[in-house]
Amino acid sequence: MLVTFLKFADNRAAAAEFMAAHNDWIARGFADGVFLCVGSLQPAAGGAIFANGESRADHDARIAADPFVAQGIVTAETYEIDPKRTIAALDFVKMPA
């Protein structure tokens, strides 16, 4: 499971200009079955993405393709998590033993 934090950067003022493209990029992540949850970091600090089902290299390439990342609106920081305990609904994110 991968968690990526998108924190606002120097070009934050351009967010409105690239919001539609960023939202399209998010929609593709869900359509591809990779994104599990996307939301805002509070208070107004950026966003976070929970993802599963692709390699770290593929995920890093996907994140780099985010218009917000490409335009320097946010910086991305990704962490790989190896879930050991989950509620039953999230058992699918556990890595095989």
Please, could you describe this protein's structure?
There is one protein chain. The chain is of the alpha+beta class. 31% of the residues lie in helices and 28% in strands. The chain contains three helices and four strands. It has helices at 15-31, 56-64, 67-70, and strands at residues 2-8, 35-41, 46-51, 74-80. The protein has a four-stranded antiparallel beta sheet with strand order 2-3-1-4. Strand 2 and strand 3 form a beta hairpin. The longest helix has 17 residues, at 15-31. The radius of gyration is 14 Å and the shape is elongated. The relative contact order is 0.28.
Q: What is the overall number of helices? A: 3
In whole angstroms, how far apart are the ends? Answer: 14 Å
On the 0 to 100 scale, the average pLDDT is 94
Radius of gyration, rounded? 14 Å
Q: Which terms would index this structure?
A:
97 residues, 4 strands
List strands and helices in order, with pairings:
Layout: E1 2-8, H1 15-31, E2 35-41, E3 46-51, H2 56-64, H3 67-70, E4 74-80
Antiparallel strand pairs: 1-3, 1-4, 2-3
Put the structure in a nutshell:
With 97 residues, this protein is α+β, with helices and mostly antiparallel strands. It has helices spanning 15-31, 56-64, 67-70, and strands at 2-8, 35-41, 46-51, 74-80.
